[in-house]
Model the fold of this input.
Amino acid sequence: MIRTVNSAFDKFMKDVVNLDKDSVANARSSMKNLLDNIQDFDNDEFFHLWKDINIQYGSFARKTKCRKLDDIDLMIGISADGATYDGSVSWNDIAITASYSNQTQQDCANEDGTLNSTKVINAFKKKLAGTKDYCRSELHKNGQAVTLNLLSKEWNFDIVPCFHTVREYDGRAYYLIPNGKGNWMKTDPERDREYVLEINKNHGGKAVELVRLCKRWIKTKKVTTPMSYLMETLIIQYCEQKDELDDFIDIRFADALKYLQTAIFNPVYDIKDIQGDINNLAYGDKFSISEKAKIDYEKAKEANSAEIEEDNQEKAMNLWRDIFGDEFPKYGS
Done:
């Protein structure tokens, strides 16, 4: 029977916010099977694949994904086979000159010899359509991936073909992925993941837990503007500037809401140090999120006061239910 705020948050995090451990284990097993299947594509009638640069990316890889487990992001490495690119152009509109020695790259080339990323994705889509245990493959709505739907599983895989560069003039190597418009763009998921996990380590594992709870809050507030990565970046940067995070997640969350009220209006710079300011929300969306944060911060303060000063656990839990909805445990449940 739940009679304290602490036990209510423990249950809420375990049953509603955090991914189910069995689902995670099954997903990782499924991912390994998929990667083995994809590696079988590597022959003279397809791209030459470079499995050493295959990489899991996204919130599942960074351990910041909250329930439910609906998609897993994978980048599948392609060997350049002599393909080249100009690293000095804009990061998100890169032309790759297709390999002369790989026929599939030639088949996916434009008339000027540049490698069309949409054709590359469609080549993967065609191959993935015949993979066992998967019911459908389709182009992702962003034009950058193939979404692979599984039989009898709750999650999909988003498959992104990629190349890996040598070190450029800035000393960094990048992944090149489709930009959704036929060309290619730079990304660096390893830098993303290492940064997040380092901040989390420095704060004793409390940072990613807070990110998941804040993402859950966004879902509860029915914020329709896509901002999962933006929210994650905001909260990770909030954690970075803190000497320490409170042991109690309700206190951590309340302080994060206070931060969010103003931070949502400011530039938010990409952790990967590639894209620059990623806060491209319209002012109306920023204002709406700020107001929701302001209202719920006041409720969170009142809940903390009810719990600590009034010793009224039921009142406190009811206030948290106002913030997180009916899935937050009810007093006495």
About this structure: The two ends are 5 Å apart (CA to CA). The chain has a mean pLDDT of 93. Strands lie at 55-57, 71-77, 84-85, 96-97, 134-139, 146-150, 156-164, 175-178, 184-187.
